[in-house]
Amino acid sequence: MAKILTLTLNPALDLTVELSRLEAGQVNRSDEMHTHAAGKGVNVAQVLADLGHQLTVSGFLGEDNLQAFETLFAKRGFVDAFIRVPGETRSNIKVAEHDGRITDINGPGPVVDAAAQQALLERLLQIAPGHDAVVVAGSLPRGVSAQWLRELIERLNGLGLKVALDSSGEALRAAIEARPWLIKPNTEELADALDCDVVSHAAEAQAAACLHAKGIEHVVISHGVDGVNWFSVGSALHATPPKVTVASTVGAGDSLLAGMLHGLLSTETPEQTLRTATAIAAMAVTQIGFGINDAAHLAQLEQGVRVRPLTEQ
Fold this sequence. Notes:
- Helix 1 packs across helix 8, helix 4 (about 145-160) packs parallel to helix 5 and helix 9 (about 270-285) crosses helix 10.
- Helices cover about 35% and strands about 25% of the residues.
- The chain has helices at about 40-50, 65-75, 115-125, 145-160, 170-175, 185-195, 200-215, 250-265, 270-285, 295-305, and strands at about 5-10, 10-20, 30-40, 55-60, 80, 85, 90-95, 100-105, 135, 160-165, 180-185, 220, 230, 235-240, 305-310.
- By secondary structure, it is an alpha/beta fold.
C-alpha cells in the first residue's frame, strides 16, 4: 500500500451532539455526545489507514489541548509531524438532528505566526520525500495566508509529490494557481473559485477543461446525495450513491477524497475507483465518527453504486 502524508492546517476537536430536533432559543437535551480529534486531513488519514495505507499527519496543533490528538495518532499508528503552537486547537460543535440535518458552530482556533509557518515548511522538506502523495485539506488558521498555501503546494510539487487538495474560498483560488494533482470541490466552491456559474454537467466539463489546461489532472466535484462527477484528462464519470439512512454528513467529503486517493494510487480501474470512493462516502453519512468499521457493509454499498460515463443520459 501507499505511504501518504496529510496536512491539516486548522484541525479541530469536534463535539457532536445528537438530538431529535434542535429548538432555537430553548433548553435542548441531547441523546448522545461524541468528541473526536478531527479536521479534514485527520479525517482523511483515518479512512486511508482503514484501507491499509501508511500515514504521516502534519499541520498545526495548539499546545493546550493535545491529548485527544496524540491519543488518536498513537492508536492509529500515525507518524506525528504536527507543529505545536501556543494556545488551543479550535473546537467545533456539530448538532446532529435525527432527520439528518447538521448545524455547525466552528471555533476560530489559534493564531499561527511566521515562525511556526517556517517550522512546518522546514519539517515538510525533511519528511515529505518518500511519500506517494500529500493531502492538503481544510481551512486556513488565523495568521496563514492563501499565498502561503500556494507556496506550500508549489514546494510539494517541486519535491515531485502528488498533491490532493480539498479547500474552499480564497484558499482554493490561490491553490489552483499552484497546480495540485487533484482537487475536490463541490459545485458552490468550484463556482466561487472560478468566478463563474457551474449549473450543469456541460458547465462543469468546461470548468474542468480549464483546470486541466492549468495542469490539474483530476477534478472531483461532489453533489451530495446526487453523487459525484469525476473529470480526468480524457475521461468523465458520474457515480450515483445508494440510498442510506443519514446519521451525519460530517466527514462524507473527506471519506470520498480518501477513497479516490486509494484507487488512484492502486491498480483499480477508474470505474472501480469511483465506485469504491462513493460507497465509502455513503457509509460515512450513516455513522458518527470517521473510518471504515464494517467491510461487509461497505461491499454491500458498493453493489448499490451506479457508475456511468457523463455522456450517458
